[in-house]
Amino acid sequence: MAYNSIILRLEMNHALVNFGDVASTISKAGGDITSIDVIRPGQETSVRDITVHVADHVEAQVVESLKQLEGIQLINVSDRTFLVHLGGKISVQPNLPIKNRDDLSRVYTPGVARVSTAIHENPEKAYSLTIKRNTVAVVTDGTAVLGLGDIGPHAAAPVMEGKAMLFKQLAGVDAFPICLDTKDTESIISTIKAISPIFGGINLEDISSPRCFEIETRLADELDIPIFHDDQHGTAIVVIAGLLNALKVVGKRMDQVRIVVNGIGAAGVSICKMLLAAGVKRLVPVDRDGAIVRGGTYPYPMWSWLAEQPQVEDQPGSLKEVIRDADVFIGVSRGNLLTAEDVMSMTPDRIVFAMANPNPEIDPEAALPIVRVFATGRSDYPNQINNVLVFPGIFRGALDCRARRINEPMKLAAARAIAAVVSGTELNEQYIIPSIFNEQVVTKVRHAVIEAAILTGVARRIPPDFR
Ligand SMILES: NC(=O)C1=CN([C@@H]2O[C@H](COP(=O)(O)OP(=O)(O)OC[C@H]3O[C@@H](n4cnc5c(N)ncnc54)[C@H](O)[C@@H]3O)[C@@H](O)[C@H]2O)C=CC1
Ligand SMILES: CC(=O)C(=O)O
Ligand SMILES: [Mg+2]
User: Fold this and answer.
1) Is the distance from the beta carbon of residue 263 to the nearest atom of ligand 2 less than 6 Å?
2) Are 415 and 432 in the same domain?
3) By the number of CB atoms within 10 A of the CB, which of 118, 179, 207, 463 ranks highest?
4) 450 neighbors 401 (Cβ within 8 angstroms)
5) Does the keyword RNA-binding apply (predicted)?
6) What's the total number of domains in the chain?
7) What is the ipTM of this complex?
């Protein structure tokens, strides 16, 4: 169930109504008052802002029941989520003020010319003398935004701005949203190449499959900075981290469990690849038309690759059929596809990661009582398996060691590092994955990623704490 927080500004006529009436009306309509601010006190009338936590489906009911209450004038209803987006969520700030002509001639012409000449003579100096060393582009074409689909580059911007905020707050990385008005693979590749000089890394985001695979592979080959499609690899890394811990909770091993992955797009392909690399022996990838089976013929190279893997099962079937007797379900498809009955047909001690955003593959309220370990991509339930646990730390590490690319050992190291933040004594059904606010996450991921980059020869710099 989706919840929202609304602020109701209302004027009360004290002769006709008291605050107790208002509170009980809101509560009866299904709202939960979380705060009250008096905006204008008064003997006869007063104005208050009442913040109410409310499920989406009863929001209109709360508003309507207040409108019906005698003595109440509803002045305004604001949605707090929209309020935090007013004017956008990020801005660009200079690192120093320009106070006088002297400063001006240093930061801009003529002084800046000497710095530009130095970089022209030695391009490596771009890392020390410009924002390149700490700046990442978050690039989308708006075609697979969360689970909302192809909503276009303008509508994708709030998600990309949100990622930029998280990059900065969690890892000190300056990230800038780039929302491209093209879906053409060649045009996306050439645009990213053309803008790449100022960036130390590229985070591809919410670009739909299968174009995302070619875009990432070509850019990784043609540029010497890390290219990381977060929906593929960030998601796969956090799934492996969560699964390592969930398997410990239920006492099963990676090479024993039968795993169904639903939604073989950007996230699903990368999850399947990483599961195979982690030793999974029984894998059932499923998309809209049912299971992708060993020996099958498919329109996309990544599905054909899966059909060649010996660990992929050869029995066709719909999701509802193949989920029977699965130990683990991983959903990166779209919301509300599974019923409680489907989940009950899995083995005992079942693990369900229903990660579609914003609505998971099964309603958490239906799943929680019938699964041993349950996780979603959302922050309002325990076990938030979201790639936000990955991208800040992985880019922090890659930028700090100036990695040429982000390779498989770096990804595996990141997954293990995230899993290890939850200690053996803390681990339980409700706590298989650390919170994104756990300060150890970025530190440990960064450390593991740099170590792996140095060992695999992709680091171009050894950070001081590794010397
Ligand atoms: N929790 C997290 O950290 C993350 C969650 N996601 C979520 O995973 C979902 C997919 O994201 P992407 O892989 O980036 O998108 P995508 O568009 O690349 O892939 C989606 C895939 O799901 C398939 N699909 C759609 N309806 C289906 C159905 N009824 N049954 C089976 N498959 C179905 C599509 O055919 C497609 O192959 C989205 O809801 C997204 O929000 C994605 C990345 C991270
Ligand atoms: C979390 C994320 O990247 C997504 O849902 O697309
Ligand atoms: Mg995404």
Assistant:
1) no
2) yes
3) 207
4) yes
5) no
6) 3
7) 0.98
